[in-house]
Amino acid sequence: MFAPRFHARHLLAALLVATSSAAMAAFPEKPIRLVIGFPAGGPLDQHARLLTERLQAVLGQPIVIDYKSGAGGTVGAQDVMKAAPDGYTLMLANTGVMVINPALYTKLPYSTLKDFTPIARTAMQPLALLVNPKVPVTSLKEFVDYAKARPGQINYGSAGNGGISHLVPEMFKNAAGLFMVHIPYRGSAPAFADLMGGQVQFMGESIPQAANYHKQGKVRALAVTSKERNPALPDIPTVIESGFKGFEVVGFYGFLAPAGLPKDVTAKLSDAFRQVMTSPDIRSRMVTQGADPAFLGSEEFASFLAAEMPRWAQAVKASGAKLD
To answer: Which of 15, 67, 160, 315 is deepest in the core (most CB within 10 A)?
Structure first.
C-alpha cells in the first residue's frame, strides 16, 4: 500500500531535476545587464567592453553595460545587491569596490562576502612605483636610501584617499621603513601632472599610464608590484627583485552577481568567462590595457576575496584613511 506514495516521491524528484536542467539549458533567455560603478571610458569600462564582445557570442545574448557611478563604486554595488539573483544582473568590480571599501567606509551599505555571488576573477592589475626624473636615483634601493636620508621631505601623490594608488605606496613605505608625506589628488591625472612637475617625488600607479609616461621620459619607473615583470615594462624589475622579499601587491578585476544565485546559473556564467579567457587574442589585448589575465572560477574567486579582505583592511588601518 506504500508503493504508490514511494513512486510519487521519486517522480516528483525526477520532475524537479528535469525542470532545473531545462532552466539551466535555457539560461540566458534575455539580455544581461552588466553594472559598472564608475563612469564610462575608464579602465573597468575598457575591460568590460573587451570581454563582453566575446561573452555575448558564448552566451548567445546581448550584454548591456549600465553605469552606476558614485561613492567609489558603492552606488553600483548597492544596485546589484538589490537585484534579483537570476543571472540577468552582473557587476564588474575591482579591488577598491570589493576589498578596500569595506575597510574604508564607516557605513558601507553592502557586505562583500554576504551580499554577492562571485562569478569569475578575470585579471590582476599591478602598479608601477615611479619617481620624478630629477630625483637622482635609478633603482628602488637607491630611492629607499635617498628617502631615508630625507625623512618627511619626500611627498608621494595618489588619485585620492583610500584608493589603491594611496594604499600600495603606503604598504611599500611601511615595508621599507620610510617616512613620506601623502598628497591626495582628485584623480590620477592631476597627481601625474604634479609628479612630472616635481611637486611630488614618488607615486604608485597602474601600468598603462605609468609605462606611457616612463617611455616618454616624463617619469622614471623603478619597480612593478607584481610577482613577475610586466610585458609593458620588461626592463623594470619587480619590488621583490629589488630586495623586498614577499612584496607582491596587485589589484584585480572580477565579475559578481547578487547573493543567492542558483548554482547551475553560477556555473554556466563562470564557464562562459573561462571560455572567453582562453582566447589568445583576448589575453593579448588585455595585457595591452595593462591587466594580466588571471582567471579564477566562482569558488576560487570567493576564497581569493576572503583572503584579500584582511590584507587590505590592515593597509587601510595603517594609512589612517576613513570615509563616511
So the answer is: 315
Topology, domain 31-125+251-319? D-Maltodextrin-Binding Protein; domain 2 (3.40.190)
CA dihedral 182, 211, 172, 137 (to 10 degrees): -90
Three-class DSSP category at 58: helix
Q: Which residues sit opposite 112 in a β-bridge? A: none
Looking at residue 199, its amino acid is Q
pLDDT of residue 218 exceeding 90? yes
Question: Does pTM surpass 0.85?
Answer: no
Q: Where are the domains of the chain?
A: 31-125+251-319, 126-224
Whole-angstrom CA distances from 194 to 96, 136, 173 are: 23, 17, 20
Cell of 202: 614618488
Cell output for 98: 570589493
Q: Provide the 10 A C-beta neighbour count for residue 39.
A: 11
Superfamily of domain 126-224: Periplasmic binding protein-like II (3.40.190.10)
